[in-house]
């Protein structure tokens, strides 16, 4: 119903100022409209609510040039009608995570953008990133630095319970991280997906079984190297036989060695071995 209403107001204002061009009448209506919805022009209310009296006063006080002094300009219509909305978009500043992986979220909302919220949690369940309060029927690109190891959990919710596609618009999301891509949008009240799981810290190799210290450093073990009555010598184990304490023990005290030490060269001449 906005179309015939605004067309009628345009005809009414033009009837008072027939010398103005159609472009100038259009600009007068836009410049004097009462803003509504999101700031400036948006998909719900356009430039705002038309105000016939305000448009009349603008032209009556300043003439046709008060609306636009160049009636040769094109009239693209919509939000591009005002010059400030038709300016070229500046190049985006490159996003750099300084060594961390970059998560890029491309989000398109449906006709009820305020219903959409999302979070990204680390493996402990702590929320690292989040977003909400989006405009309707709009597209957003956001970048974040994933500076934690392990899986990140992306969760998106819709407070009405109809997702962001496809009942009230063609909304959706795509997350790009390194060589991974996840996407969606057709859900009910909630949807969760994982990404970045390959960032998990590598699992350290298991500690080899056996006497600790012998294979790593022959000098660190405090257990007796040489057997005495009632004790077992570490020199009888594969990891310790070639350690210097075992070799010297054979030479210095052949009468106290146990049979298993006979495999060591230094012990072969001991009576117990021969």
Characterise the protein shown here.
- The structure is a single chain.
- With 274 residues, the protein is α+β, with helices and mostly antiparallel strands.
- Helices cover 16% and strands 19% of the residues.
- The protein has 4 helices and 8 strands.
- It has helices at residues 2-16, 22-31, 52-62, 244-252, and strands at 101-108, 116-121, 127-131, 139-146, 152-158, 172-177, 180-184, 190-195.
- β2 (116-121) and β3 form a beta hairpin.
- The longest helix has 15 residues, at 2-16.
- The N and C termini lie far apart (113 Å).
The level 1 CATH classification of the largest domain is Mainly Beta
Spatial strand arrangement across the major sheet: 4-1-6-7
N- to C-terminal distance: 113 Å
Radius of gyration: 40 Å
Annotation, overall tally of beta strands: 8
Concise overview:
This protein has 274 residues and is an alpha+beta fold.
List the helices and strands and how they pair.
Blueprint: H1 2-16, H2 22-31, H3 52-62, E1 101-108, E2 116-121, E3 127-131, E4 139-146, E5 152-158, E6 172-177, E7 180-184, E8 190-195, H4 244-252
Antiparallel strand pairs: 1-4, 1-6, 2-3, 2-5, 5-8, 6-7
Task: For this entry, give a set of tags.
alpha+beta; 4-stranded antiparallel β-sheet; Immunoglobulin-like; single chain; 4 helices; 274 residues
């Amino acid at each position: 119903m906005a179309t015939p209403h605004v067309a009628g107001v345009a005809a009414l204002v033009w009837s008072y100022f027939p010398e103005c061009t159609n472009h100038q009448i259009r600009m007068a209506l836009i410049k004097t409209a009462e803003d509504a919805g999101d700031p400036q022009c948006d998909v719900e209310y356009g430039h705002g609510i038309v105000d016939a009296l305000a448009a009349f006063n603008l032209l009556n006080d300043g003439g046709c040039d008060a609306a636009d002094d160049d009636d040769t300009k094109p009239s693209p219509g919509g939000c591009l009608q005002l010059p400030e909305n038709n300016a070229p978009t500046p190049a985006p500043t490159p996003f750099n995570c300084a060594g961390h992986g970059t998560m890029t979220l491309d989000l398109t909302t449906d006709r009820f953008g305020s219903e959409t919220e999302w979070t990204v949690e680390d493996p402990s369940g702590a929320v690292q990133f989040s977003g909400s309060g989006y405009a309707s029927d709009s597209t957003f690109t956001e970048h974040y630095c994933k500076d934690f190891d392990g899986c990140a959990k992306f969760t998106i919710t819709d407070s009405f319970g109809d997702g962001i596609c496809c009942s009230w618009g063609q909304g959706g999301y795509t997350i790009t991280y390194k060589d991974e891509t996840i996407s969606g949008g057709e859900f009910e009240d909630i949807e969760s997906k994982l990404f970045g799981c390959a960032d998990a810290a590598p699992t350290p190799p298991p500690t080899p079984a056996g006497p600790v210290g012998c294979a790593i450093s022959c000098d660190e073990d405090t257990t007796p190297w040489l057997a005495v009555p009632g004790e077992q010598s570490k020199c009888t184990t594969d990891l310790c036989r070639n350690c210097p304490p075992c070799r010297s023990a054979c030479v210095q005290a052949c009468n106290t060695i146990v049979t298993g030490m006979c495999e060591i060269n230094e012990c072969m001449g001991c009576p117990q071995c021969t």
